Amino acid sequence: MKNLIFNWRPEGLPEDWELLLAADPSQRIIATYLEKSAFLEARREGELVGLLLLATTSSAERGEIVNLSVRPSEQNQGIGSQLIQQALAYGKRLGYRRMEVATATTSFGPLYLYQKNGFRVTSVEQDYYLKCYDEVLMENGLLVKDRLILTQSL
Hints:
Elements: E1 4-9, H1 17-23, H2 27-34, E2 37-44, E3 47-56, E4 62-70, H3 79-93, E5 98-104, H4 108-116, E6 120-125, H5 128-132, E7 138-139, E8 142-143, E9 147-153
Organism: Enterococcus aquimarinus
Protein name: GNAT family N-acetyltransferase
GO molecular function, one term: N-acetyltransferase activity
């Protein structure tokens, strides 16, 4: 994680879209959470290499990581974990009691990352992606159907 700079900012930048769409292929869905999110960026030598969006929720006691992506060339170097740990610390400062994240049952890498960082599966939303996305999604050779909710107490 040499030469990485992490910075919170209140809004998105045009350069964010590549990473946003890598984590969530629907511009329509992303648009639903952009305005209610704080952006945590990771930069190396000025280049955006990672991005996490932390949304405010209807409950003042809960934060939600709604998007997390790291450039493929920068993955497996701890950047995702750093982004998560900074989001957890930020959530504590805001007074959140728990942090939540949702991901597909087929998202093996993100599932590993979130669990490695202390999140636990707390519920399943069956057929979420079939109902909420306009296109059929495939990941890791599987049809994306169900969404897992993972939480962590702060």
